[in-house]
Amino acid sequence: MNDLRRVRYVREEYQESQKYEGSLLTFLYDVPYFPPCGIFPPLRLLNQFLSTGGSNGGMSPGATWEPFCVSEQEYVDLVESLRKTPLAEIEPHARYAWVKPSFDPSLDSIDVYWAWMAAACQKHRDRWRATLTALGPLS
């Protein structure tokens, strides 16, 4: 977790924002609604997402950052950290470290992040909701 890129970003809450810095791993667990329906995107789609700079969330929580992309090696290291780092190590640093993401290679041929996100949620939404519901109230 410590060898990953450091990311500076703003946690956006309704009528409030606060600057943060964390590893790429903790940053991604701090972005609301990411990964969509618990499915982690392949590299090119992750980079499309990171290139947006995020969203302030409006009346919902959000996160904003200077747009960037990760290299293939950073992605490999990130995926390894996602798989190996216990959530208990991430929870103190990120708002949404509730469930480790899954991967669905059957969706990897989709070329546009928003189309991939829609397909991921169409396929995995019910499982994702059941997983979150089983956790009980989340803070």
What secondary-structure arrangement, pairings included, does this model have?
Layout: E1 6-13, E2 16-23, H1 24-29, H2 43-50, E3 54-55, E4 62-65, H3 72-84, H4 87-90, H5 113-135
Antiparallel strand pairs: 1-2, 1-4, 3-4
What labels describe this entry?
139 residues; 39% helix; 16% strand; alpha+beta; 5 helices; 4-stranded antiparallel sheet; 4 strands; globular
Question: Would you give an account of this structure?
Answer:
This protein is α+β, with helices and mostly antiparallel strands. The protein has one domain (6-135). It is 39% helix and 16% strand. The chain contains 5 helices and 4 strands, in the order ββααββααα. Strands 2-1-4-3 form a 4-stranded antiparallel sheet.
Tell me the number of structural domains.
1
N→C terminal distance: 24 Å
Strand portion, in percent?
15-25%
The arrangement of helices and strands along the chain is EEHHEEHHH
Based on secondary structure, the structural category is: alpha+beta
Global outline: globular
Biggest beta sheet attributes: 4 strands, antiparallel
Walk across the major sheet and give the strand order: 2-1-4-3
Number of helices: 5
State the gist of this model:
With 139 residues, the chain is α+β, with helices and mostly antiparallel strands. The protein is built from 5 helices and 4 strands; from the N terminus they run ββααββααα. A hairpin with a 2-residue loop joins strand 1 and strand 2 (16-23).
